Amino acid sequence: MTESTAQAPQFISYDDVYSAFTPSDAVATLRQTLQDGFNPANDQSRSAIPVENGEFLIMPSTTSSAFGIKLLSVAPPGYQDNLPRIQGSYVLFDGTSLSPKALIDGIAITNLRTPAVSISCTYDFFADEDATSPLRVAIFGTGPQGRAHAATVESTFPQRDCSITFSSRTEPDALDDSYRWAQAGSAEAREATRCADLILCTTTAAEPIVQRNDVADNAVIVAVGSHSPDARELSTDLVAASHVIVEDMEATLREGGDIIQPLNEGAIKKDDLLTFADVVSGKVTIKRDRPIVFKFTGMPWEDLALAEAIADKLASQH
């Protein structure tokens, strides 16, 4: 038996990830990946396998320089409040040697990736605006993803005065004093949503929580909370009245109930949908004459892009 000469993979903890990479770094990495010509349509499919007390997600992806897989467990809401709903790891391989390169905390990757997708797609709608004007943000959901979205907005637009209001059914614990909270459905929550430039839906809701009359004509709305055909956060009338961006045609039409249901109802047409890659690469330009909706469910390439960038940055520091 020959002795292995492969180097042991680097273990990258949650704290290691955030010491090396800021939310704005994650946004820039995803945007650069698409601007360099990566086509999400060539990505691998995500698998969801039912397990005894939840779901097992398997997300593989590959590029010319690396390949990897994210393995996550997802618990139903309220299953064990003392544990995160999402747990797991990312295994990164070197594309040349084919050796395992890093084992990365899966929650850190997910908490960086998800809001980075939201903001990398919508970045151009806010980056060139008057830096002295406030950026009004309404976030539905106060869990880890809601809070990660707030941190990503602030990290990506440091020149803007970000006014962030969270809406949820119950008051969250230990919310930063710089944020406001409003009871979902209250007059305060409705006003914050109506005045918002950017609306981020990060909930586990199965039925629409945002309607067309709830938002301004120039609002940008991101729906990220649901990832099944029978669940959605946005109403049909809102989607039908908006410019609609999808993460990827195939992935969205497989999992994105916010888009699948209006399509099935005949309220929108597939030909009218724009893609994340085309928007970020500048192949299409969207007029700000009505609301803009971006729907995504998460794709493996996004995790791989961040995992490789994080591992390379940490390796360069040693």
TrEMBL record:
InterPro entries: NAD(P)-bd_dom_sf, ODC_Mu_crystall, ODC_N. It comes from the Bacteria. Pfam families: OCD_Mu_crystall. PANTHER family: KETIMINE REDUCTASE MU-CRYSTALLIN. This is Ornithine cyclodeaminase family protein.
